[in-house]
Amino acid sequence: MNYIEYVKYLKEFKILLEKEGLKFRNLDSAISTIQTHQDLKYEIKPPIKIELKGKFPKRLSHTNVKVLELEFDLNLHGTFQNAIDGRDPFSSYGLNIVIFGLSESSENMLVNAMHLDRHDGTKSNSVHPYYHFQFGGNELKKNVQEYGQVLILDSPRIMYHPMDFILTIDFIVSNFLPETWERLKKESMYISVLKKVQKLFVEPYFRSFVNFFDNVPNQWKHHELYPQLV
After folding, report:
1. Is there a domain that residue 89 lies in?
2. Which residues have CB under 8 Å from 40's CB, separation 6+?
3. Within a domain: 108
């Protein structure tokens, strides 16, 4: 895949999302940046906002939440060739997802946040998969002024494959907009685009583990992804 094909997939994806009432004007700027660099380098900022309509997540710490909105921003810097070669596709990567809720019983904004980022390679005493999800973090601290008596700790770093814009959207709709996801999966173009980007970003990630157990040399070092693997 090259940048011309990737831009085509992004544009096709945008059309499908707009049919579902999801607007991503920020994507045009990202596409322009990709065309300028002619490679896998772009950002989605300011954050894209998505109203979570319909059924809220089944388990919420606060009942009677009347408004629920999700925001996300994405910043990635990498090369298509590394992905094609089965290497780590990115040299830097950061995805922030923040959910804001307003309860009927309080005017205080409720906040939940998570992030998926790439380790910078510096040595750490704790386990640090190169790509990992973590809950909380800077976005939570930025939006919450009072913790009350809640004790907040750094959560475990949960290993996960890197996601571009297309995989990020699929992650969000599949987890937070399941009815939208069910409709999108019926669109042949959605499935076709998803397969192509999964092949590019997801397959090399998991192939590195298979190669490790089969004692096959691999371009992507398994210990970067799964430090506990022995």
Report:
1. yes
2. 3, 6, 34, 76, 77, 78, 79, 80, 83, 89, 90, 164
3. yes
Q: In terms of residue numbers, what domain contains 58?
A: 3-225
- Dihedral Cα 25, 22, 3, 93, nearest 10 deg: 90
In a domain, 81, yes or no: yes
Return the structure tokens found at 103. 């309860």
Total domains in the fold of the chain: 1
Candidates 174, 138, 164; CA nearest to 44 is 164
What DSSP designation does 93 have?
E
Residue-wise pLDDT for 155-213, tens only, equals 677 889 999 999 999 999 998 898 999 999 999 999 999 999 999 999 999 999 999 99
| Summary count for the chain: helices (H), strands (E) | 9, 6
Question: Is 230 inside any structural domain?
Answer: no
How many CA atoms lie within 13 Å of 228's alpha carbon, on the beta-carbon side? 5
